[in-house]
């Protein structure tokens, strides 16, 4: 309500000013009353039009001014926000750059530390190698010979326990004893005595040549497939025909009766020679059976099973004597080889531990303690 009164007062203000001006002017002359009235009407009309226009345009002008102020305020706010965002982005960018620089500096520092550590390690390794080379260069030949002798004794012990190779172990012990002889040191006499004891122990073991046994059995298997078997043809005994005299009618009747029935049914007692008449399949089965026994003996020899080895050779010898032709040279040769192989002992020989290596290590320990 107060706003409408204020607006009405503002709109009436120009009219009051115009009335004051008119009142201030001198009164017109009588001759110009018509023109003066017309002028007064025009002025009043213009004032009324101006008042009406002001009354209609004033709210729009105020709203336009308010919108302009709002726009200015919004623009100012946008400007402030953009400046704040720009400042925050600059600050964030500076922080990121600072963090990246710090990380790069930390990485460079770590890399430098690692390089320094690697350089120090390499330097220490080089120094250790130099010292080792100097020690080896300055070491007397005696130490080199002792190290070589120790290696030979270790290898001999491995040959005895791991491979059961007594011949190689004896050769290694002999070589070590020769090198000890070159040193000509009385303090090494216990080591040489231990080597002599080990050599005497190994001399008692005579390991058979299993490779040769394997080759012989393989050749015998090949020969067994070509050996001749015993073959005998049974000759039938034909009874003599009796005479034609009438007095021998009983014998004649019995003879013809037996001849007639013998062609239909042959009944007789079995004899050991019945198996000599064998078919082709039976002959092949006998040869294959002999071959299998020889193969079993071969496997038992390679696996150090003396009982299985002896049983397989005995079975093969029995089959050879019973079913094969004993007059053939191949059968005789195979029989003699079986007898020779049966005398071979394929059991694993067990030896006591070698004492020379422990004696040498004890001597080296005494040298180290005396040098300290």
UniProtKB/TrEMBL annotation:
Biological process (GO), any one? methylation
Q: Which residues form a coiled coil?
A: 97-124
Stretches that traverse the bilayer: 38-58
Question: Mind listing the GO molecular function terms for this protein?
Answer: methyltransferase activity
UniProt keyword list: Coiled coil, Membrane, Methyltransferase, Transferase, Transmembrane, Transmembrane helix
Q: Which InterPro entries match?
A: HemX (IPR007470)
* Name under which the protein is recorded: Uroporphyrinogen-III C-methyltransferase
Native species of this protein?
A: Rheinheimera lutimaris
């Amino acid at each position: 309500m107060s706003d409408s009164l204020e607006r009405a007062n503002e709109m009436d203000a120009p009219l009051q000013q115009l009335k004051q001006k008119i009142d201030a002017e001198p009164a017109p002359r009588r001759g110009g009353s018509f023109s003066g009235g017309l002028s007064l009407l025009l002025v009043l009309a213009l004032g009324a039009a101006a008042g009406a226009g002001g009354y209609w345009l004033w709210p729009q002008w105020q709203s336009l001014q308010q919108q302009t102020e709002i726009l200015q305020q919004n623009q100012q706010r946008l400007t402030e926000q953009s400046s704040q965002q720009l400042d925050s982005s600059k600050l964030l960018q500076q922080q990121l750059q600072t963090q990246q620089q710090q990380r790069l500096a930390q990485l460079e520092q770590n890399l430098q530390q690692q390089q320094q550590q690697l350089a120090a390690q390499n330097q220490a390794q080089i120094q250790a190698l130099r010292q080792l080379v100097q020690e080896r260069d300055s070491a007397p030949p005696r130490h080199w010979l002792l190290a070589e002798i120790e290696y030979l004794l270790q290898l001999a012990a491995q040959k005895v326990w791991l491979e059961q190779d007594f011949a190689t172990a004896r050769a290694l012990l002999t070589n070590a004893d020769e090198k000890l002889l070159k040193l000509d040191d009385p303090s090494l006499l216990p080591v040489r005595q231990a080597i002599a004891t080990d050599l005497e122990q190994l001399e008692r073991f005579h390991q058979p040549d299993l490779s040769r046994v394997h080759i012989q059995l393989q050749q015998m298997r090949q020969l067994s497939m070509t050996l001749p078997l015993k073959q005998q043809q049974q000759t039938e005994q034909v009874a003599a025909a009796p005479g034609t005299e009438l007095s021998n009618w009983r014998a004649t009747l019995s003879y013809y009766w037996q001849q007639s029935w013998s062609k239909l049914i042959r009944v007789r007692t079995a004899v050991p020679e019945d198996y000599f008449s064998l078919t082709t399949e039976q002959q092949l089965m006998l040869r294959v059976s002999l071959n299998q026994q020889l193969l079993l003996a071969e496997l038992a020899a390679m696996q150090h099973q003396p009982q299985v080895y002896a049983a397989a050779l005995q079975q093969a010898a029995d089959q050879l004597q019973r079913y094969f032709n004993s007059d053939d040279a191949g059968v005789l040769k195979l029989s003699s080889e079986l007898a020779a192989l049966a005398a071979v002992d394929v059991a694993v020989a067990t030896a006591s531990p070698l004492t020379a290596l422990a004696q040498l290590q004890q001597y080296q320990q005494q040298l180290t303690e005396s040098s300290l």
